[in-house]
User: Fold these one by one.
Assistant:
Number 1:
Amino acid sequence: MSKESYNPFSLKGKRVLVTGASSGIGRAIAIECSRMGAQVLITARNDVRLAETLSMMDSADNAMYIADLTDDSHIDALAKFAGNIDGLVNCAGIVKHVPFRFNYREYLDSVMEVNFFAPTTLTQHFIKRKQLNKNASIVFISSIMGGFVSNVGISSYSASKGAIAAMSKSLALELAPRGIRVNCISPGMVDTALMADGIVSDVQLEKDRLNYPLKRYGKPEDIAWTAVYLLSDATAWMTGSNIVIDGGYTCI
Amino acid sequence: MDIKKFIENFAFQFDETDSSLFDAETEFKTLDEWSSFVALTIIAMVDEEYGVQIKGDDIRNSKTIQDLFDLVESRK
């Protein structure tokens, strides 16, 4: 093999589905996967922003599909649209900043729905239909707030991210006989629109950034490159893992 | 909207500060118990009691309870 073509991190020949691809981490993952040679299918609720992501991606071989993953009929249609895949990255997520004393069932449900039930149900559909190719890689986006550490006002978010990480270990065992790998990424704070809901003021965010040993929040690309790693054959012997990528935050 | 009730709702979110210390002119960010978490609690209270979604910057730009009351009332 020539030196030029040697790249164990390449995604050439892989067909990857990325959810939550209309913004933030999902968008960055879609773009980086396309740059690394994958054929990428993207999905989200917002068609304008999703089309924007599509236009930012490499190669014309990609496709988008509008879906609300909290609706089972949309999940079914999306799975039909996607066909067989080599990689599934579950990025769609929401956060609700609310103190526990105001954390009504309605909030808890909405966060669990998007962050836990939707990705779990989508993955289940692909497995049941045998639409994951041999040696496929499934990636879930958890968070350092999903059990490692937490913060005030995000109990539902922490619960949902902890749930997805715990679930993925059992799934890793179930899919191991078929060579399908299941891993999680647990980022620290990443600069995305998810954080800029205004509930937490910019001044507070500026201060919080300095709590990170590397003195900044993550960029969506920081997380995207970890996803590329998990989707590539470089991690063929990796399953049931949960990669913390947090600028050193959890060292303190 | 009733300012008296608003002050009562506001004061109820504090655990250590005596409710007698709250009136319309209270500069709430100078209270010992004030914190970013209390701010989050006030935001949730305003949403629940008044159906108005205020933001972190709204709290930051308000000095007194009256300021915040006026702001919430203007958005109702």
Number 2:
Amino acid sequence: MRLSSIVVKKNLLLKMGFTVALFFFVSLFAFQFLESTKFFPIGVDTVYAAEQAVTAEKPAGAEAKPDAKKEEYQPAPKLTEKDYPQVKGINGRIMAWLVAQLHLWFAAFVLAVPILVFIVEIIGMATKDKRYDKMAYEFIKVSLTAYSITAVFGGLLLFTLVIFYPDFMRYMANIFSPTMLAYAFLFFAESACLYIYYYGWHAMEEGTAKWVHLTIGWMLNIIGTVLMFLANAWVSFMMSPHGVDAAGVFEGNIWHAIHNHLWNPLNLHRTVANVAYGGSIIGAYAAYKFLSARNTEEKAHYDWMGYTANFIAICGLLPLPFAGYWLIAEIYAYSQQMGITLMGGVFAWLFIIQAVLIGALFLSVNYYLWCGMERSKGAERYTKYIKYIAFVIVACFLVWFTPHTLIMTPGELKALGGPYHKYLGPLGIMPAKNTAVNIMLIFTFLSFLLYRRCNKIATVSWAPIGNAIQAAIFVAAIINICILGIYYGYFTNTVLKVGSSVPQVASTLFVIISCMIIDVFMFKGAKEVAPLQWGKIPDRSQYALFILAVSFTWLMGLMGFIRSAIRQHWHVYTVFRDNSPDAFTPTIGYATKVVSIGVIIFMAIVIFIFWLAHISGKKNVSQGAHH
Amino acid sequence: MKTFLKVVIFSVAVILFYAFYANVMIPQVRPAPPPAEAKLDMGSLTMEQFIHMGDEIFHGKGTCELCHNPVGGRAPLLDQVGKIAEERIKDPRYKGKAKTGEEYIRESMKEPSTFVVAGFGVKGTNDTQSPMPVVTSGAIGLKDFEVDAVIAYFQQKAGVTVTVQLPKETPKATEETHVADPAKSGEEVVTKYGCGACHKIAGQQGALGPDLTKIGAKKNKDYLRRAVLNPNADIAPGFPAGMMPPDFGTKMLSGEFEILIDYMVKSK
């Protein structure tokens, strides 16, 4: 039976109704489950939630049984070195570290790809351009093998934690067991959606069935996101425990443990980063296929795929610094000590490495766009501006790269020769960095704007005015960002210093949104001066896409280490101490070696996945030829 | 195959460049090992343990970081105070008795209005009166050896020589060695959680937050509940967001929370 026959009516409203009904069915089912495990639905009034908790909690001396809580939940155990099992020849911490990181890289990829595929599929449906559908299918094909590998690393991580950290796992399971069961259930649901989505692609390619297919893709994304949020609850609880007392005794309300202080900032940061990361990995895949292409048609297809993936990566990359800023601000708000350890202690040097990596990301994104201008001869009008854009981006990168005060022990201070540089020190504080990153984003957007108009000339009568308005917006925003950064950042008090970052971000977003709107209208029906020739891009540009993918992976590994390491010698910060022989904070060199090994393993597996997709494609081509 | 090898070599080279940069170009600072867990015996206390005690007091019992933090901007940051204390003494506005940096910090903690850093005084006093509570009395009530521990922590943090002497005797057991009993009245709740450090309430004269002496006449019970549990839900005019700690809902016992709300409702 054809799936399309399930839905009899074909009008648009019914199709939408079907989608909405499916959503409510899934949501109701999920909340039914959550209800039974003492969840509060997302968005519940904080006061109400807190009141419920207060009612449930009975303090010492109150009318209820004082020991009821302790009978049900134990305090966090106080462990000794002997409580951590040892396996000869294997360092438990490094194994858990590497496996967790590999699981996370793959998970980020397989969560991101369905988002991209879903969007590309909708664009394909709206534009009726089959190329989009073909590309979306190719994306999901690549992610399918990665999905299995994600599950394998997830299982391996669980075994590793149970073997090397049994007491920690017992403690976490006591609090989070309902969510762990939900996680397993959702994983099955996600697998089902993914397999139907992939294997049903061609069966549901046309008409109403396409809507069913889209709905399944949408469900796949919702379930995947919920899965990530659940896992985020566990790791963020370890950083900012909530719903437990000072001794680690669980109060019994799991929503409090999930909805801890850092949960939402982490959710946002990881979601945005996943999109950028997924785009970068797909971009590397397209670059590899481009370099291996044997004919111009293939070259054109993979050039276009690489461009689209890079565009998605940029879309994720632009808001990422803001999401990161929010996360760090919330870490400070939760614990000054943790925040200072993170930004002002020994970890501060890691942010200098981060600056190098993000600088590399921005430069490679821009370089790719500049190379992409070679697709059209019309771009020659703009190439003279590239050197200025490059100069500004490098200058901003150098500001971002400058360290400031490092809080150290006297020994460390002596070894480093002082807390900060006399002249460059002022560039190390956040107002300078906020200013630099906003200008870097604006100039990256300028690169994109120039690329966008490289093959056309606006024909609307108001084009000169439009250009002048765009230029004015750019100049005004840059001046505004500089004034906010310099005046409020250095010559006023802390409240204004921190507060000024918000209008800075608003200025950047205003530039991007307003200039994009003007550009879209200005170039509607524009005259094409020289057509974009997909595939006519130098090979060297593709290496920018590899830098993007490798740098992103390495950066995620580094940031994963920082996020975890700022707990220092705590399994659960201030509540459950880590007394294992490996509780020490490693040096940067040690950490980055582990990260580099992880990246090499990850890249080797990714290449294997690409190869599988490649030979699978070959088989399809040969079958197609026989038929 | 040639493309494959080129891509692999290029990718590995990028990874190795980052590893090289992080290992060779970045100073390899070895972080301090996890602090010892052993209970402190004042007689055999090391300076490292004493500094750690100061660190704990700063972030905990002393409630110092409620104001001395980079978010609220309510009070000067203290990460370099161990170093700049000597310069403060030379300031023409300084009228205190301190001769050394150590003495200056001690004086600032016990008599905060002796010298007020420009811009951080109580409104309308032209920086002659500090909004900071005396740390050795009231809700905070630090002992002398705890004040010394905090000074040692400041000096170590600023990278200057720690001049504070270790305590020679074990202090007598005090009430802070056991878990505090639940507060029984509104005044006790206010004292226990240090509300008076920022608010004017229950006879305490905090000036950083809104005056709560007649709050019951202006706000109802629901508003006050929300204000304690989720302080950023409604911000009083003239006070920036993010100043009040958001975790009183988890720190207070349920009985104490109700007592406090009732107390404020009746404050008319």
